[in-house]
Structures
1.
Amino acid sequence: MTELSAMILDRIRDVPDYPQPGVMFKDITPLLADPVAMAAVVDELAGLHQVDKIVGIEARGFILAAPVAYRAGAGFVPVRKKGKLPAATLEESYDLEYGSATIEVHRDAFTPGDRVLIVDDVLATGGTAKAAVELVERAGATVAGLAVLMELAFLKGRDRLTGVDLHSLVIV
Ligand SMILES: O=P(O)(O)OC[C@H]1O[C@H](OP(=O)(O)OP(=O)(O)O)[C@H](O)[C@@H]1O
Ligand SMILES: Nc1ncnc2[nH]cnc12
């Protein structure tokens, strides 16, 4: 295990039975509260790919993706839950470990040919990440990679993302 992985693992809190019985929720707030660990995470994610845009997935993905975009000198594009973006959108629906959701991106969020890194906190079933990849591609950009803080391997999200360059800072 790398020093960075150990630092992340040490700052993610397990909360049993949230938001419903049987789910072990990975709470990233202790990591967010630690400026040294956050700086290390943001620097690592910003160095993964040379891209034009960083895509963040609402809501926890935003917290990581915006500083990564700043650090990488790239633009930031929000992928939001349905009904939150004001202009014309594309949408994708998917199932979660604890429910279902629809996410959207602005149709004009990308310049054709933009290379994009998608950033989120947790990869669980992969439903969110797969929907985000599809949205970005439908909007005319190329997904250079997908980066998450933590991958929950037992939920096999990786298997739904064949062909995507997936980088997980911690796999549990
Ligand atoms: O791999 P999956 O099974 O799709 O799960 C992963 C997603 O679930 C969480 O988001 P959530 O929808 O709970 O929203 P939040 O960030 O607004 O809390 C997490 O931030 C990922 O986006
Ligand atoms: N167990 C979990 N903890 C935190 N975020 C999640 N998103 C989906 N499953 C999750």
2.
Amino acid sequence: MNADGADAAGGAAGRTPLDRMPEWQALARHRAELGEVRLRALFDGDAARAERYSVRVGDLYLDYSKHLVTDETLALLRELAAATDVAGLRDAMFRGDRINVTEGRAVLHTALRAPRDAVVEVDGENVVPGVHAVLDRMAGFAARVRDGDWTGHTGARIRTVVNIGIGGSDLGPAMAYEALLPYTLRDLDVRFVSNVDGADLHEALHGLDAAETLFIVASKTFTTIETITNATSAKNWLLESLGGADASAVAKHFVALSTNGPEVERFGIDTANMFEFWDWVGGRYSFDSAIGLSLMIAIGPDRFRELLDGFRLVDDHFRTAPPEANAPLLLGLLGVWYGGFFDAQSHAVLPYSHYLSRFTAYLQQLDMESNGKSVDREGRPVDWDTGPVVWGTPGTNGQHAYYQLLHQGTRMIPADLIGFARPVDELGPELAAQHDLLMANLFAQGQALAFGKTADEVRAEGVPEEQVPHRTFHGDHPTTTVLATELSPSVLGQLIALYEHKVFVQGAVWDIDSFDQWGVELGKVLAKRVEPALTEGAEVAGLDASTAALVARYRQLRGRTD
Ligand SMILES: O=P(O)(O)OC[C@H]1O[C@](O)(CO)[C@@H](O)[C@@H]1O
């Protein structure tokens, strides 16, 4: 129960297991009755299918007509959403209920983009004024860095910003920085360091002048070993590079983004240089919080607010659009359909934009850390598949790498094809002209995946009979096409919110806690235990034979054996 006495699981306690729900069983029967679904037949039988199976949200147009579904499928999926109370849990999330049951936390990334006059309460306190206070501080700081008003220890202007963080404290801003490069100050470089492999920091520092470098240490907990290790090395580099400057130099070159003031202070960063956020912001949902500071410096506060507006547009849509036209709900349910009834194990996200080259990596954490769970919210093992493996890279590169498997392999891999009507202005006429070719590829891939090429069509081209099977494309590979106007800050916000809420819908249906991440803990604990074995040859109790042999071999290769 939360402070209001409401059910902490947002009404999910005691829920009938998904696969025993009549609505799930109705879908299973429907799937059996459908048998082989042929998209050619579905399109032939319904001239209006493309129009009917599309939805507009803000600047996004979603075509889901190339999915293996009928009106009945969609109706049954909506019934499943109703039976699993997706809307109830959604409202509980927006309201600030503690729907992250295993951590007892509210899940309020939506409050990060709420308008100033909104009221969102956690334990009776409106969190919105705090959100805007931090945004305003960030805007003030970002403006000073951009204008050259914030200077380093020697009085030099900041020319490079290095964000040190990992997971949700890296992937969002790193992805968005690349996505919005045309909107950035080109003479202010932003680099991202995440890996504890010293090579990452080494390369990021290459060629930098410490006097002109600002480090942003981004960590919700401020205890993440990778980030603290990198930040410590960066601090040492700075002080050394500044000719043995004293610790006061840190105040001009280090700021922190965190929920943990005491740890920030312990690290040696003045909390006056800390931009806070709150435990009700999950790491992978945090990039529109203070964690976005590096991005805000790069694109400026106004553009950052446009990004937040984009998020909010989709939040409002998700809260208010009817189920038939609710884009995140539809996308979530389609994934449930393929995971539950087609044994789809993975989901490809294929952006036809070079600027979105890190988009899928960002979604991997969003989706897989959220929905990679195997017990329900009450801790009972689930008997149904949960989150898929999410993967993909920008088209058209993927076409010349792994699309072969998408077209002719044996696996069911639903995919999202994401493209933009307009190329970015900066490209100039000649490069912008290439955009049509890029988009022709996107449309062609959706078409080929859906409709394939029959053996008769292959024969009609005069292909020798023995080659016909090799050149036949079965088709019926489902895709959603997301066609947006252009890759602007607002559109990026819309896209991310679309996926955030899609992931939410799936977690709600599958009855899992999409907001914890216990699965990352064991590896962290074991790494801490194994490290002394590598460095000092310490005995590690309970080390299995395989790992012990690997450790011994490693020490031998490092010349550390006695
Ligand atoms: O921001 P922090 O606390 O450094 O955590 C970084 C990342 O580590 C994780 O906790 C996983 O280990 C992610 O959920 C999070 O985004």
3.
Amino acid sequence: MNLILDIIDISTPVILLNDIDARQIGVLEGDRVTITRIKSKHTIAAPVSITKTLTSQGTATVSLGTNNALDGEKGDEIEIRAASRPSSIAFIRKKMDGGKFTREETAAIISDMSSNVLSPSEITAYITAAYINGLDMDEVEFLTREMVASGEQITFSKKPVVDKHSIGGVPGNKITLLVVPIIASAGLLIPKTSSRAITGAGGTADLMEALAPVAFSASEIKTMTEKAGGVIVWGGSTNIAPADDMIVTYEYPLKIDARGQMLASIMAKKLAVGSDTCVIDIPIGPGTKIPDEAEGRILANELITLGNRLGIRVECAVTFGGSPIGRNIGVNLEVSEALSILEGKRGANSLVQKSVAIAGIALEMTGKSGSGTGSDAAYDQIKKGKALKKMLDIIEIQGGDPKVKSTDFPVGEHTFVVPAASDGYVVSIKNQALISIARTAGSPVDHGAGLHLHKKPGEYVKRGEPLLTIYAERGWRLTRAVEEARTTYPVLVEGMLLERISSNR
Ligand SMILES: O=P(O)(O)OC[C@H]1O[C@H](OP(=O)(O)O)[C@H](O)[C@@H]1O
Ligand SMILES: O=c1cc[nH]c(=O)[nH]1
């Protein structure tokens, strides 16, 4: 049936059909249709949603997400036909039943995902099936290579091309904002691509976006890296492994990071930008993605094995993730904390030590520093102001303000101080509770939202002194975040009353 194209500004891939047209075409809610733009003969597929009022008879309204693939214009004539179910759905079902993906099956799933043929519920089913039943190393390699093939690749003539990545999972992990300028200021190339928050309250791409634009094409990333030595950009921005970012988007609301997809997500971003040397940070501890050192070592070996298969030299750093890195969580708070260290101000030891340790491994792997001297050399780049200068170069080349200072990042005007209920030492911190409070307060979407930890494990606090301050840009968000803090006890002081339990009668 031929209809007239309309376009609606929503990203989820969908085509809205009037219920009378849908009946004539022979499709129900959630079925798939093919859409052919008559002018160009270009055909794509999309899942259907049926409406009585939003789309009038004779018109088909496609989302921007669908139109990106169709490349149509409002008013175009299009032909709509009922489509058969893509074969990738059978492959997803195979994984649900505990089967193993072949390379061809992985390619079909990633291709259908990238071209918006799979619906959000089918993508979620794919992620969930792989989360529950796992992917072996062959399947992970297939996925990595298909993620890379779904987008553009960069190659540099100068070697080495260095990279760093964190598996995430620890709040306040802003180290990339220090590690990248340290490495680039030592004369190495580092085209760093990051995801937005996956399980956390602010991914590196979210943080960097407070300093400069992060969405660039592959050729822009290459040119900027060659000029400035490094960049910090969003991996999902354009066409660098776009399927990776789709998976991350569907993982975010579930607060999961499926193991096989995480391995592929990390290494696809490295392979796509032509990295040959990579340090991967594996934070471990309660409330992180990896509970203990033994599991950290297993993951490290998986990343190293995958790196070998892809021709990337990988070293992993198993790091302490039992409490936040630094004291700030949330976009502006974290950016400010990272910049102030680069500016030479005193700051949280956890942030400085972790950053120089990771940067130091890269310096040693590339021969820039001798064995055992990398972290001192990395620290020197901060102390001599070279890392700050490089960070400002990176900000400028990405279109940000090169005069920016750590004091330029406002926090939300709605604040609440959580006081200690008793005297004592802080014995532990619940990472997940802190992340959840920061997300409830509005992070990462509201850049001023988040929290500042006044006390960390081992520190003494007196009753009534602040344990943490919550910041929000909207009053209602602060109210909800405070309610959460009152029930989850994110900072535990020894001897404190956690809960009163009484009989229901
Ligand atoms: O939200 P969670 O799961 O904590 O972590 C996700 C973050 O971890 C990685 O950080 P980086 O790019 O190595 O700095 C990803 O790119 C992303 O920014
Ligand atoms: O980039 C990343 C980091 C952690 N987990 C992912 O899935 N991707």
4.
Amino acid sequence: MDSLKRLLVFSLLLAVVVIGALYTLKPDISRFKGLMVEPVCRKKLDSSMFKEVKLYQLKYPIGQLQVPQPLAMEPLRPDVLTLTPWLAPIVWEGTFNIEVINNMYQPLNITVAACIFAVGKYIRLLQQVLESAEKHFMVGYRVNYYIFTDQPDKCPQLALGSGRSIILLPFPSFNRWQEISLRRMEFIRKAIEDRIHHEAHYIFNIDSDTVFENHFGAEALGELVGSLHPWFYDFSRDRFTNERRPASRAYVPNTEGDFYYIGALYGGSVEAVYKLTKTIEVELNTDKQNDIEAAWQEESHLNRYFLQFKPTKVLSPEYVWDKLRGHPPERIRVVRLATIIKNNKELRPN
Ligand SMILES: CC(=O)N[C@H]1[C@@H](OP(=O)(O)OP(=O)(O)OC[C@H]2O[C@@H](n3ccc(=O)[nH]c3=O)[C@H](O)[C@@H]2O)O[C@H](CO)[C@H](O)[C@@H]1O
Ligand SMILES: [Mn+2]
């Protein structure tokens, strides 16, 4: 009798574990009731509705850490620019102490949203970017991967770290890659309205043709974050690939421009990115009505936006290196995220 009871309890426990495991591995596709282009509920968001990290919440734990003293007369990276003319830090290896940063941010239990679009054949790239993100992206923090896709059933099933989850969101199949790329602003805006505003504190847009190779953590968090494009960080402004036709809302004259930022990685507080996506969506629509498409789609508009609304933090090319450029120069000491070499002809719909 006793052994029967034990067997019964054991089988029950086993069933709970198996069902639990199946449940956690299975991405949430409940929101896929047909491909809805319109958000489920459209909210007008005001400042009070966002999750945010206030400066006074960041508290350094006195007496607990042994960290080197910062020396005002000894720059840590004299070989690169570490501050913009508007006094935003440019993040390079050697400029920050991750222990200090983690000790200030981790007690706040923040959630970071990563928006990744995987439409058409790009769905194949998801496994690699997600697996590598689990090893390097915001480790020790809560992370929500919002995967925008037209094929929810093909999303890889990964065992994620604790506090990390995948949320699938519908995105239509377009037959021009340019359309996919530039509609991202609208879809991020809608997802923020729909749910991200109450689910995350910070948000990043990350291209799916990328792979994380090294630490990419809380040092990258900021109110409004742009990343230097790995092809243009040492170019003069007149050679940036900004939109040069005044007829486009993305127009930047060649006598202006601070840096050339990449469209594959930007972020910030959810509220700041909401404002960014909302603004750029309007500019994109205006261009569309005027029958003009900026040279590099939403990246061109992003550059115009960042010229006007300067990022509060700038990520160095460590944060998006392009493998097509081969090994980075010495001053780029570490590659944290790299864009993969892909066959555009084979992957893109056009
Ligand atoms: C090195 C270079 O020249 N990079 C430019 C190129 O980026 P990329 O060559 O990196 O563009 P891309 O092909 O990665 O497209 C951008 C993103 O859109 C998504 N996607 C795109 C096509 C598709 O069929 N399915 C899909 O899911 C996916 O998340 C992808 O990462 O074009 C972009 C256009 O905005 C930017 O201007 C980039 O600076
Ligand atoms: Mn890309």
